[in-house]
Amino acid sequence: MKRDLTSLSISKIYIFLGIVSIAGIFLLFFFPRQSAQVKEGRTNRDLINQVLHAAIPTIKSAWTSPSLYISKKECGIPSHVGEAYLECNSEGWVCLWKNKTHLNVEHAGKVYQLTSSGKITFIQRDVQGIQNRSGYIADFKIDELGVEQKIFLPKTCHEMYLPERIYGYGEVSDPRKQGFLWDNAGRKIFVDKFYVSQKDIYEWKKHLGEEYKTANPWEPAKLKEDEQNSFCRFHGKKRLQAHIFDATQMTPQDFKIPFPDMVVRPDTPWQRDYNRTFLAESTQEGFKLTSQDCSLAQVKGCAENYFMTDSVSWTGVAFGLGFEEEVFNNPIEPELNLKKSSKFEEAQSQWHKLGRRGSSEENKEYAFRCFREIL
User: What share of the chain is helix, strand, coil (3-state, %, to 5)?
Assistant: First the structure.
């Protein structure tokens, strides 16, 4: 079954994300000058600044795309966990420098060797605006220049931009009706691509001096709603809201018109025509799940996998249907706060449609994610 998406529009979104990442995040990489240990006399300060600037793309790729340099197998990551797990992840950074002696940085026809101890520490910062409140402190050296520098590595790889346009929320009884509409004009909203992981919670709890045990750090963390709110708030974010989640999953009919007169609500993130999906076909006699089906929506009978990207929507946000039961903050219909579509439901379940939600159980722990808005 082919994914019914417009790749041109998705590429434009990722171009925007790249601009935001470089201009708004990686300019924050280097700590103030006093944190650098520069051996005066070995070279001039202008050259140092030029080489440090040239090193930014290399550091950025090492942090955000470690798979360019190492394989997940080298890091002890099992096959059912995607390479995305190592992106903007202390495990990826440590693994890279365990397996690589240096990375090359080119400037003015000369190659410099960038090295790191691989040591990395999770921190929280008191900052506002586009800057990230949480991330990591690491180090690198360029021996040819006698430079040793501390850097801040933000955890932003999996924040997906929600384009400014009008969106529909939830379901409508009649597709000719508009139902509840909203727009995010003038707002810069970024949504977590994946669920909050157990590793995320472990780092947070450790920072707070609390204990949290996890056997598989890549698995989704499941917390009660009050703790979910506390976690997101710690990172300068909020718990994901139901209407924002719907917006990330419901592919617009025309990407070129951000504020159309009619808003269409598809039933799945990857196919406009529900009858052409494996979910519809599952009601037929003799139907069998395939690995491709499970990669789009992990339903009952599928093997579990984590941090895979096959299920991403038009905004790059994964797990729109199937996978985990996911709880949201729903300011529109507070009682409808749970995505019931999950790995616990058969493929033919009525719950496997976008915008369709049930109610969470009190004091039960659920998977979740966060979003942040740059003001």
Answer: 30, 20, 50
Q: What is the 3-state secondary structure (H, E, C) of 127-163?
A: CCCCCCCEEEEEEEEEHHHCEEEEEEEECCCCEEEEC
Could you read off the pLDDT of 84-140 as tens digits, one per residue? 999 999 999 999 999 999 999 999 999 999 999 999 999 998 876 666 689 999 999
Structural domains of the chain sorted by starting position, each given as residue range(s) with its CATH number in brackets: 26-154 (no CATH), 157-375 (3.90.1580.10)
Residue-wise over 214-248: b if at least 16 C-beta within 10 A, else e? eeebbbbbbbbbebbbebbeebbbbbbbbbbbbbb
Give the whole-angstrom CA distance, residue 334 versus residue 232.
19
Measured at the CA of 248, the angle between CA 308 and CA 260, to 5 degrees, comes to 145
Q: Which two tokens stand for residue 243?
A: 């209407």
Contact predicate 299/322, CB 8 Å: yes
What's the predicted TM-score (pTM) here? 0.89
Sequence letter at residue 295: S
